[in-house]
Amino acid sequence: MKPFDLVEPASIQEAVALLDPDDANVRAIAGGTALILMMKVRLFEPTRLVSLRRLNGELRGVRAQQDGGLRIGAMTRLAELEYSPMVAKAFPVMSHALRTLSNIRVRNVATLGGHLAHGDPHMDLPPILLTLGARLRAVSPRGERWIDIGDFFLGYYETALARDELIAEVDVKGQPAGTYSWYEKFTALSADDWPAVGAAVWFRLQDGIIAEARVAVSAATDRPMRVADAEAALTKAAPTDQTFTRAADAAADAIQPLTDIRGTAAYKREMVRVHVRRALRHAYAQNQ
Question: What is the rounded distance in angstroms from the CA atom of residue 193 to the CA atom of residue 40?
């Protein structure tokens, strides 16, 4: 491993000032669970790492909002979210997913901000946050901006963050009455492996009919993404097995799956079909 500088700023303003928008080899490091692995195999050779471990305040912890939603600091560890009673109450779908997100050793170190900023399409929380309508606050030397999570993931390991921007917090708004959500994860290896397919669903019932719906797929595709065709198949329909099957078929037909060590594109397409349908069934069944 080549020598590099390691700096530990005391504030987020200092941290973004140490980043370099013109140098891809200068990068922030939070938990480091992914970045260190990339360095070990020389996929990434930094000239400078900006450690965020000393950053506190609003960058850590979970804060309740008046609308029933949550603001989560980017430096909050995934294990803190897993055991947070506020997360369990407001968004049980997140608590459920965190139990098998990698393993407890990783969750004790990995942070929410790093989990998102890394841009790996195999992460578990991005499709869930897509269906919950989350947004991110990013800070740079130019100030701050809010990014809708639907605009955040651009491609394989590619996000909307500039090289001199950091995620400060994640805002997940409270959900209206009559909503159902679930995350279904399929792993080709162990239960705590990165998923071969991730399927998150959310829908709201009004007078027994699905008034609005969100379906997001990850891992099988180059980025976490909502599937408009599947959402259209659900909207204005009754929550029946026939509706759920049509939506799952629409999701499988709409995506462009990737072949990798966890399965071929054709195999993943079928797994999307299976697990979107299961997610919809689980979401509806849990509140019946």
Answer: 20
Domains of the chain by start residue, with CATH = 5-51 (3.30.43), 57-172 (3.30.465.10), 179-285 (3.30.390.50)
pLDDT in tens, 205-247: 999 999 999 999 999 999 999 999 999 999 999 999 999 999 9
Query: β-pairing, 209-218 with 197-206?
Result: antiparallel
Query: CA-CA distance, 89 to 184, in Å (whole number)?
Result: 19
- pLDDT, tens digit (0-9, with 9 covering 90-100), for 130-179: 999 999 999 999 999 999 999 999 999 999 999 999 999 999 999 999 99
Could you tell me the two tokens for 154? 């651009």
Tokens of 280: 């919809």
The pTM assigned to this predicted structure is 0.95
Strand ranges, E, within 57-134: 62-64, 70-73
Name the token pair of 202.
Answer: 């959310």
Is residue 288 predicted with pLDDT exceeding 80?
no
Per DSSP (E only), the strands in the chain are 5-7, 26-29, 48-51, 62-64, 70-73, 135-140, 143-148, 153-155, 158-159, 166-172, 179-186, 197-206, 209-218, 225-226
First and final C-alpha spacing in the chain: 55
Residues 6+ apart with CB under 8 A from 215: 131, 199, 200, 201, 202, 226, 227, 230, 231, 234, 247, 251, 276
Q: Which two tokens stand for residue 209?
A: 């009919």
Report the Cα 58 to chain-centroid distance in Å: 20
CA–CA dist 161, 11 (Å, integer): 19
